Amino acid sequence: MNANDPALHSSTAHDITDGRSPFLRHRSALLIGATVIGVLTVTTAVAYAVYPREDSGVIACRRIATVAATGDPPTISLAEMREVTDLLANSGNPDLARTGSTYRDVFEVHDSGERDATDVLSGFPTSLTLITQTFQACGRVGVEVPTPHLTPR
What we know:
Elements: H1 6-9, H2 22-25, H3 27-50, H4 56-70, H5 78-89, H6 94-112, H7 118-121, H8 127-140
Keywords: Membrane, Transmembrane, Transmembrane helix
């Protein structure tokens, strides 16, 4: 070949080196990239599955404790109470799940609009008993709920 040959100086001369497409030439880089992405995905999934998450009942107890500490008497909206009820009912702790389920049952009776729900409500503990059970269950999972409004004077 002659050094003055235009084929040697063209911009496409290096693309014709072995006749493979650009995809095939960069296949190893693509495979390494896909492998790295796959390993990261699997690692993230395993970490998420193994990493301990906080129980929803403990989260509900903390919210109850925060509300109880804010005022005398404490106030909580109906929407917030329903949200806390769902957190309690979905708890992995049986005591918290039981109180959450009881609150849900009370809401179902309330939402049904029945005027005479005495027979249904007779199976429920009184509201003070249910609140006390909830506070005690929260205390057993390490969340103390302040109760200055329940202290005898």
